[in-house]
Amino acid sequence: MRWRAYGEHAALLDCVSLTETIAAHATVSSARPPGIIELVPGARSLLVVETPGSGALAAVRDLLADADLEHPPGGGSREITLDVTYDGEDLELVARDAGVSTEDVVRLHTGAVYTVAFTGFAPGFGYLTGLPEPLRQPRLSSPRTRVPPGSVGIAGEFTGVYPRVSPGGWRLIGHTRTVLFDPRADPPALLAPGDRVRFRSAG
């Protein structure tokens, strides 16, 4: 891990892996040092923003210096279940590349418990880790110009749900009717880093 200054009241922690990022975020979230305004995890980083003069950044540095990031604290996270109709345009492609049936794709995808590692790309879009190895496949060679909202996709080590219409190159395996982002809601985004997510087949 390596810390870098990020303005006057924030610091960016560079992590060696996504696993380390998730563990660092969980450790700080669990301890909740006073004075922390915001924690923003990325694929290999964690941004920590403090209240000016609180000393929270120093507290977080000390906390993580002594933390066992191989065994981060558990518990306290929400678990969200999303009902999915597995009818995606790329379902057969995913099955073929995985060397399994489309039914097996559904079984594998619904059998795992995922963690929201970080959010980005679009408001409400969560990058979910925990995808079974056979489903870890590359993005499409030619991205679509329009992906419908609620589309469930996979790409590399991640799975996720498109919260709104947008271009996208993830392989689509299904769709959900659950609203992932509503600017009128509090909070607007359904998923937040650290949340656990399960997918359930809606038939």
Automatic annotation (TrEMBL):
It comes from Amycolatopsis decaplanina DSM 44594. This is Allophanate hydrolase subunit 1. Transmembrane segments: none annotated. Gene3D superfamilies: 3.30.1360.40, Cyclophilin-like. Residues 1-191 form the Carboxyltransferase domain. It comes from the Bacteria. One of its GO terms (molecular function) is ATP binding. It holds the Pfam family CT_C_D. Keywords: ATP-binding, Hydrolase, Nucleotide-binding.
